[in-house]
Write a structure and sequence with these properties.
alpha/beta; eight-stranded mixed sheet; 19 helices; 52% helix; globular
Length: 485
Amino acid sequence: MPTDIADIGLIGLAVMGQNLVLNMNDHGYTVAVYNRTVSKVDDFINNEAKGTKVVGAHSMEEFAKLLKRPRRVMLMVKAGDTVDQMIDHVLPFLEKGDVIIDGGNSLYTDSNRRTKALAEKGILFIGTGVSGGEEGARFGPSIMPGGNPTAWPLVKEIFQSIAAKVEDGTPCCDWVGEEGAGHYVKMVHNGIEYGDMQLIGEAYQLLEEGLGLSATELSEIFTEWNKGELDSFLIEITAEIFAKLDDDGKPMVDKILDAAGQKGTGKWTATSALDLGTPVTLIGEAVFARCLSAMKEERVAASKILQGPVHSKPEDRAAFIEDVRRALYCSKVISYAQGYMLLREAAKEQGWNLNFGGIALMWRGGCIIRSRFLGKIKEAYDKNPQLANLLIDDFFSGLLNHYHPSWRRAIVKAVEYGVPTPAFSTALSFYDGFRTARLPANLLQAQRDFFGAHTYERVDKPRGKFFHTNWTGRGGRVSSTTYNA
């Protein structure tokens, strides 16, 4: 067996791992592969990788010997304990300066920990998000690497070669930041993906129930939408899904059970938002909507007991469709603005130096949320790298100011029809809350001070000074400790 021949090694030959290997091979890199179930190595070499330069190994020792120094080892295995086990398995065969890359959907705190622990052993760690599904992995994914900055020059050429490219040839891959920054950005990407999918689902149900549209008509509408502002991968595939017929000639989408699955990254995003006190309401609602969908039997039983409104179709079909389109677009703007708010808070908390325009560029191609819209986010941050919130950018504020009447009409119709729109509705509530100079939190603070002496600030005094009122005349002079959540 020859040694020192492979540019990079990959462990984990499930579909994403296999497709990344073939993508690397297409770009002229020699890749060594290993899998814990060793038979998968031979199966891959004799089938999908037949005729390529890919080399297989039947042991970790043999695998390590195939790699040029510094060794670059990419793990495409299940997130969690499996990653730690595989790192422990490969470590004895590595030397100082070698690189371990975790390309799975790992929790960012695990990547924080692994970066530090491996640095103490002299091993460079990268935790990278990889988005785009099977096709993206094969022909050009979005790649979001973070971890030990010393490792980036050692993998940059390979990653940027295999990544998706935008129109001018710029790769959808750049260094994100230290420690778990890459996996955090991928987590937020996945949370936004949850939101986008829920918003599209709400538009679908509102059009279907409001107008009684067929799958064919829905396919035509989404195809048209994909030619304009909503141009994106998810809108494109939605049009294709509606057009797909089952063997009996009926729409495939109507045969699919309405109980959604999830792998946890949306929940991680919502949990992180709560931890950081950032109102990422839309992604939270998208996660809960999947949870509600899973209560299929209970919903069916409730549908026979609980009543909804009786309604007629809207008089102006074209106007209604346009209102729904605009509601979808406005809600999408809110979701991305919230996602970027979360990235900003996480960067502050973790001490990461995130390039927000660069992140939009990484998401512009290859990944599941790729869309024309992301170019506008890139432009907003190019114009003002210190932009506090996307909603105050000229393009986005102008769009929302122009479209919000349509957004409101669509939600009013949803209420009249009894169609649930948790993501549309929370997006509008956030918009109205964000643009409101005075919210009713003054009453909330009074209540907290009344029952718990939690104190409050006053509008006629400097910020940071706290006061307590003896509301009943029976309370004492002592107030509770002040803290902010």
